[in-house]
Amino acid sequence: LDPRLVSARASAMGARLTLLIIRDVTERERLDQMRNDFVANTSHELKTPVGAVTLLAEAIESAADDPEQVRRFAARIQAEAGRLGQLTGRIMSLSRLQSSDGLSGLRPVSLDEVIASSLEAHAVQADSAAVELVRGGDRGTWVLGDAQILIEAVGNLLANAIAYSPQGSRVGVGVRVEGEVVEIAVTDQGIGIAEADRERIFERFYRADEARSRRTGGTGLGLSIVKHAAQRHGGEVRLWSRPGRGSTFTVRLPRIEAPSADGTGKKKKK
Ligand code: ADP
């Protein structure tokens, strides 16, 4: 073996190793950065309701002899506490979805039940926004999944569809079987989403319409949860939208056959 060849190979390997190390360090730095951003954003989001509760509690103390004022402040404390509860709940869902265990056990899940539960959970919100909820499409479809997280994901899509829609409009939830895949589509006739925002709205804490999101109690985490929930189930989310006309979010999941009486869901065969 020519010693020059050996030394050329050694230096090429050395260069490759250096490149690998640099790549590894860059990836670690990127993950660290993401984690730091998440902590910073979360703390920032939590500060607002915590600050409000503190101020309102002080206001109650000084309004002690005015029962009407006390009632008003107490109602606002309840609302802020509700916001805090929703925010911490979503942060927990998201961190669970991003952890290595991800889903808490896979079972055959009926999409009829997922949709019925999500609709029920948002009936009051739809009522007070004067938006009509409509269930359409196929029945009797099943997936292998975590029912709780699927109910939460469909619920987040419903909550957004209602929040970004005008009074008197309709929000539809439909299911469609497409071969091996089952699609859950949530459609609204609301404000729509500009093309420039369509990728970014799935990022944590990204809001296309900051003021409206905060006014309607948004957390900026809803769609991030939907995306991770779909991916954890081996599926994906698609978005169609026309600004000023409305949006359709579609969650596509691998379909299974209705489980037999013993409760085992088998993968659908062609
Ligand atoms: P938020 O809690 O703010 O709604 P999401 O993660 O659920 O957070 O959504 C991110 C952003 O995407 C929202 O702030 C809003 O700007 C936009 N968005 C989500 N769903 C809709 C919809 N159905 N119609 C219009 N805009 C939407």
Automatic annotation (TrEMBL):
Coiled-coil ranges per UniProt: none
Plastid among keywords: no
Organism: Microbacterium bovistercoris
Gene Ontology CC: plasma membrane
Keywords noted in UniProt: ATP-binding, Kinase, Membrane, Nucleotide-binding, Phosphoprotein, Transferase, Transmembrane, Transmembrane helix, Two-component regulatory system
Reaction(s) the record says it catalyses: ATP + protein L-histidine = ADP + protein N-phospho-L-histidine
Domain Histidine kinase, first and last residues per copy: 41-257
UniProt key word Glycosyltransferase: no
The EC number(s) this enzyme carries: 2.7.13.3
Location of the protein in the cell: Cell membrane
Enzyme category, top tier: transferase
Name listed for the protein in its UniProt record: Sensor-like histidine kinase SenX3
Chief location category: membrane
GO biological process: osmosensory signaling via phosphorelay pathway
A GO molecular function held by the record: phosphorelay response regulator activity
Organismal lineage: Bacteria, Bacillati, Actinomycetota, Actinomycetes, Micrococcales
